[in-house]
Amino acid sequence: LEALHAFYREAGFNAALGGQRCPELFAAGKKAGLTVISEAGVLCNGFMVRGENAPAEDLFRYHPRRDQKRRGICPTLLSASDRYYADLVANSKKCLQEAHHLYENWEPYMFQKRGSVCDRCRKAFQVFAKLSDEEIAALWPDIVIDNKAEPHNRFFSWQLGAIVKRAQRAVRQAGQELNLPYNPDFVIAFEPHYITPGTAWYAIHDPREYWGAIDQAVM
Questions:
Q1: H helices of 37-81, where?
Q2: What is the rounded CA–CA span in Å between residue 17 and residue 219?
Q3: 180-12-33 Cα angle (round to 5)
Q4: How many CA atoms lie within 13 A of 177 on its CB side?
Q5: pTM for the whole thing?
Q6: Which of 16, 61, 116, 189 has a 20 to 30 A CA-CA distance from 1?
């Protein structure tokens, strides 16, 4: 491992990104003078808080016609709940023992335009779109699975952005609590279609919702 990382350094690289966290990889990377960025497994693909035995009422609720088996957390909770923020901070502190920065795969295809249709998200969307009780009753929940529904597309994009920004804050706080001599980052690796006009994914994502709140991203 030390020889491999030394080779990377000699080839002109200043960082190593990829793979699961590993103490030996971290040690070899540091010895070679590389910045090590490893997969966290803390908040994968938007709503998947791994290792969390969440109660049923906290889970991502799919539209009845988009039933899925993937377990995720309600995005409204993830972007507002003190409990889940504390979990992100605690798990980030553990991960930062084996990496300088943390990254996650950010392709939440299993959740895109399939929910969440819980009451929390319903109320949040109503406020976001400034809808009356009568208007939201007529639209919900089918607007959630309508790819051409621009108000909900923007809402879903905003929800993803809020989660990215919260994760970045959590990783930074973890670094402060660990007294790290630098600011650790939450690095997202996202699919290029997110920023390719004309694609289905582009229609329901807007990186500008979080771009100013993070320092690094990988495509």
A1: 75-78
A2: 12
A3: 30
A4: 15
A5: 0.90
A6: 189
